[in-house]
Amino acid sequence: MNWLTNFVRPKIQSLMSSKKDVPDNLWHKCPSCEAMIFHRDLEENLHVCQHCGHHMRIGPEKRLQMLFDPGFETIELPKVLVDPLKFRDQKRYTDRLKDAQSKTGRQDAIIVAHGAINGQPAVIAAFDFGFMGGSMGMAVGEALVAAAKLAVLQQVPLIAIPASGGARMQEAILSLMQMPRSIIAVEMVKEAGLPYLVVLTDPTTGGVTASFAMVGDIHIAEPGAIIGFAGARVIESTIRETLPEGFQRSEYLLEHGMVDMVVHRKELKSTLGRVIDLLRRPGPGAEILKMLPRDERLTATRPGPVPVQTAE
Q: Among 10-19, 189-198, 254-263, whose mean pLDDT is lowest?
């Protein structure tokens, strides 16, 4: 027993204690096909399932890194009143904000940054669904106004990338007031003659859809994104009818003219750069040919007399 106690048991304990802890985030399950994907493969594929093509939700930092050229910068957003209504449901609103801030590391559900997309300067306002469902409160409204002012100041396009469940209920009417404020921000950009583009991601619903998300010059959607105002179950219970398959998905909206194009995440940066280049190009991309006067055109196109051959 002394040999087992003094040698074998300590040896086993040392081997067990030296075993490295395996991280629990090496594999991710696709929410669509439930396939297990290695984290490096998922990163290389821009968080798109390599088996079924499902576009997973990503944070605003990763999205900005995917779209901007190296060297983009974020801006400091305006400060707003915290919990002006002293709202409380199951928890205090201030406690919910603190939890979301500690979870995400940011003050609210939006990031505003400026940089270049394939060499084309732009300002992007990207939402974070992980911050209270990307809900739109006073802070988001102020951020959209700040993004519009920055775009006008730099004379560059504004790109909004919503990922939101709608207005923030804890701010009640103050949250609903951000809908017209966001429209005012968009009008500032359009009145300056600058393009306003919207990239619709999963999900884009509620008051966000009913305001700035659907008034873009061009709407680009990611594949499979849920885009709508009310939820499908609410609509079915209201109209008492079964909704068509794929209702409120980006492909369905494309077929019915609500979005202009559905673009894979890998092609999103090149598509935005190309669209901005076309919208911002001051003149035509090719040489304009001058038309001949009408008489000269008729002479040039009129067939001449057909020579008649005679037998010798």
A: 10-19
Residues 34 and 159 in one domain: no
Integer Cα distance of 164 and 185 in angstroms: 18
Q: Is residue 13 part of a domain?
A: no
In terms of Cβ atoms closer than 10 Å to its own Cβ (0-12, 13-18, 19+), residue 229 is middle
Flag whether 15 is in a domain. Answer: no
**Position 79 in a domain:** yes
Q: What is the pTM of this model?
A: 0.84
Is the model's pLDDT at 299 over the cut of 60?
yes
Report, in this order, helix, strand and coil percent for the chain, each rounded to 5.
40, 15, 45
CA distance 160 to 142: 14
Report how far residue 225's alpha carbon sits from residue 160's, in angstroms, rounded to the nearest whole number: 15
Task: Clarify whether residues 114 and 157 are in a common domain.
Answer: yes
Residue 138 gets the label, from left (phi > 0), alpha (psi -120 to 50) or beta, of alpha
| pLDDT, mean of residues 110-134 | 97
- The mean pLDDT of 89-115, rounded to a whole number, is 96
Distance from C-alpha of 198 to C-alpha of 14, rounded to nearest angstrom: 57
Q: How far apart are CA 29 and CA 291, in angstroms?
A: 61
